[in-house]
Amino acid sequence: MIGLLVGREKSFPKNLLARVAALSPDTKIELICIDLDSLIPFSADSPFSKYAVIVDRISHDIHCYQPFLKVASLTGTIIINDPVFRHSDDKFFDSALASLLGIKIPKTVLIPSKSYDTDVSTESFRNLKFPLSWSTLVSSIGFPMYLKSHLGSGWNFVHKVEKMEELLDVYNKSETKTLIAQQEVKWVQMVRCIVIGDECIAVLWDPRLPHSERYAKAQDTMPELTKEQSAELVRQSVLISRYLGYEMNSVEYAITEDGEMFAIDIMNSCPDFDNDLGIELVWWVVDRMARLCLRLASIADETDVNGDSASKNVGVGNGGSKNILNGQWPIFLSRGRRIRDGVQITIEAIKLEMENDPHKLSLVDGIELFSLEE
């Protein structure tokens, strides 16, 4: 069985339910219902172990779901994405990882939080040099720079600052958020690379446009990507997503006029999959996520950590990983997955697949959606 944990989004869950039903009518997929009974781990009638795969689209905002997902992974359920690492991930770590992997990043500095919980006193900060050296930060990065929450998503709490007064004003309003300061990249192209499993597509995306037009009209506001640029962006995005252990992710790049590519946001383990992507990308995201869920569901019942045949009740989970920089992958990546180069996807290839799709499609709200029989 496949379970979906979702928030306000409607089109993606509906489409995924329909696509799984079309591809594998015998596979049950449902929205998860969490109640107090769900919070009793390992009881005889615990619902944790009934799911082979859970697609998590909301626990980054609804934090009480996070322990549920971690315990579900202990029972052998495969979580997309891995809850143990996902909930400890942050933008500063991701920038450091990208740099170690040879991916260019803007200059990035971690800034201690402005405020803390009430049980913290001045004695708690004996390791922190105070006052903070703002002049050192400015001399290192320069203006303009961007201040972001190190755990932020959806462009929440992202501020461009161009002088010291603005920097201090944003910092003073940041409350308990830990921030990063990032050098501005003068870009002529902004790109989002969407990763599903081993596949990836690089698409232009313009944050200056209204939300509904950022994908659809980006090709009118910036130069087209070359084949070489697309191939390199896909390579980098699949590489870092694999190291992070993410089956779904998006990586944002800023490309300068002379062609330098900077990864400016790597931590997007719950990417936007709404209709603003456009018909082709919606189709591809839903189709590939459905196929990924079905493949992982078949693996979950058959293999343990070492790849040996085992019952799901043995309790193989997602959590735990060795030193990934020494070539040891997160454990769940070895469960039936062969580590290989990423597969580059193009809009033209998606259109061809859509034309040859034997399953019925319906038109809803101006987007081709997979139909779900009532």
Evaluate the radius of gyration. Answer: 22 Å
- The parts where pLDDT drops under 50 for at least 5 residues are 303-339, 363-368, 370-374
Terminal Cα span: 19 Å
H/E order of the elements?
Answer: EHEEHEHHEHEEHEEEHEEHEHEE
Please give the largest β-sheet.
5 strands, mixed
Give helix % range.
25-40%
How many alpha or pi helices? 9
Would you tell me the structural class of the helices and strands?
alpha/beta
Number of strands: 15
The share of residues in extended strands comes to: 15-25%
Biggest sheet: strand arrangement = 12-11-9-10-13
**Can you tell me the overall shape?**
globular
The mean pLDDT is: 82
Q: What multimeric state do the chains show?
A: single chain
Describe the protein's architecture and organization.
The chain is an alpha/beta fold and 374 residues long. The protein is 28% helix and 18% strand. It contains nine helices and 15 strands. It has helices at residues 11-23, 65-74, 83-86, 91-100, 134-141, 164-172, 227-244, 279-300, 347-355, and strands at 2-5, 29-31, 53-56, 78-80, 108-111, 145-149, 158-161, 179-183, 189-196, 199-204, 248-255, 261-265, 343-344, 361-364, 367-370. Strand 9 and strand 10 (199-204) form a beta hairpin. Helix 1 crosses helix 8 and helix 8 crosses helix 9 (347-355). The two termini are 19 Å apart. Mean pLDDT is 82; it is low at 303-339, 363-368 and 370-374.
Short précis:
With 374 residues, this protein is of the alpha/beta class. Helix content is 28%, strand content 18%.
Q: Which secondary structure elements does this structure contain, and how are they paired or packed?
A:
Blueprint: E1 2-5, H1 11-23, E2 29-31, E3 53-56, H2 65-74, E4 78-80, H3 83-86, H4 91-100, E5 108-111, H5 134-141, E6 145-149, E7 158-161, H6 164-172, E8 179-183, E9 189-196, E10 199-204, H7 227-244, E11 248-255, E12 261-265, H8 279-300, E13 343-344, H9 347-355, E14 361-364, E15 367-370
Parallel strand pairs: 1-2, 1-3, 3-4, 10-13
Antiparallel strand pairs: 5-8, 6-7, 6-8, 9-10, 9-11, 11-12, 14-15
Helix pairs in contact: 1-8, 8-9
